[in-house]
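Structure representation:
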Amino acid sequence: MKKYYWDSNRLDNINSQKIVDEMFDTAVNMGRNRAAKFLQESLSYLNRNERIFDDLDIDGHIGPTTLRSLDYILSSGEEKLLLKVLNVLQGNFYLKCMKKNPAQEKFMRGWFNRVNLTT
């Protein structure tokens, strides 16, 4: 389990316990690649106007470029904002699931208990 959910997303290389917790929870709930893609997409949104780092490939693979970009965002004091963007992506995914298949609405309360926008 550690190898699949933790090691595959290089969580030991992330310098924020809150981001690590969010990534692990998302990986277990939605899949490790989706968790990685959410991180890459979030970092890309935070980089849009600044172009501080190279654009990230949203490929679900946490590599050196993703980790450098994450370190930059964390060193800029934007951990809370990053967590919010990660949670918005997670919540949006749940909404899309329910829209696509209304039978999934029975899971809504449990799913949205995982989405924390007050971090």
